[in-house]
User: Fold this.
Amino acid sequence: MKDKIQSLQTQFAADSKNVDDRMAIQELKTKYIGKKGLITELMSSLKDMDKEDKKTYGQLINQVRTEFVTVIDEKEKSLAQAELDRKLQEETIDVSLPGEKIKRGSLHPFNRIIEDVEDFFVSMGYDVVDGPELETDENCFQRLNVPLGHPARDAQDTFYIDEEYLLRTQTSAVQARTMQENKEKTPIRMICPGKVYRRDDDATHSHQFGQVEGLVVDKDISLADLKGTLELFAKKMLGENTKVRFRPSFFPFTEPSVEVDVSCFKCGGKGCTLCKQTGWIELLGAGMVHPNVLSMGGYDPKVWSGFAFGTGLDRLAMFRYAIPDIRYLYTNDVRFLEQFARKDEENVIK
Ligand code: PHE
Assistant:
């Protein structure tokens, strides 16, 4: 019996030596200490022995069983530890690794310009107002001193919807609206950025483009107020060194009317291809609100006066960011747009 027990120990030692995974441990358990395992088998072989031997060998076999259990337990424990170690190793975060770059979107140059224009005028106490793109002929033309059949209509190739409605050709329509809607006839200080439409399409013209309108109606407003305001505006948008020049012009809704030029920001006024060697670039149209427009808006021109201006947002964006073709602003090429993720100052040509 002793030999049998010893050989079982030797067999166990050999079997358990290289056991290092869950399945093998389970097999070892079943084989030696399972219900129908070798230990049970050995125990049952004691049944025909006398009482003394039964006791002695019974104890011995139990001891061996405890040894086996201890070995198997240890194996299970070290396996669990190894698994835990491996898991921890896998889940380690190396904080010194460079982070993943998050791709940031950028504001469209158009929106950047609108934000800047709004910031400037809001800081001067102006309201930002809105108007519909589908306008009435009355607001877009008649109330701006352009009656039906007036030749000035030809200058703006209009998309008519029917006799009464059209796609607005100019944000000036919002001048007429604002004056009408201001029932108390209090002073007005407003700007209105928005889309306008004309039947036009080439490298410098698009059938849809952006304008920003400005209107001030108050008492004792003079051309000097207009000049001072637009000078500040030009410097703010195009740089401190920008010079401003006023030329006489014509718009049916302003009298006198002016065209405002700025010194060429590319050559500084010396003359280059951009300014066609003149040193100046046309920026906007403006003037003192025509008395007829004031009257039609319900303001007595003997009491009230005002100025208005209108400029192309596309033009401003093209000047400010040196964009050579207006169509870049509308084709939404991501490579083009990504350039505007940078800070404003980096995009302004100096
Ligand atoms: N609406 C004019 C245009 O589209 C610009 C303008 C606005 C001129 C206000 C004078 C006053 O050309």
Notes: Residues 51 and 57 are 10 Å apart (CA to CA). The chain has a mean pLDDT of 90.
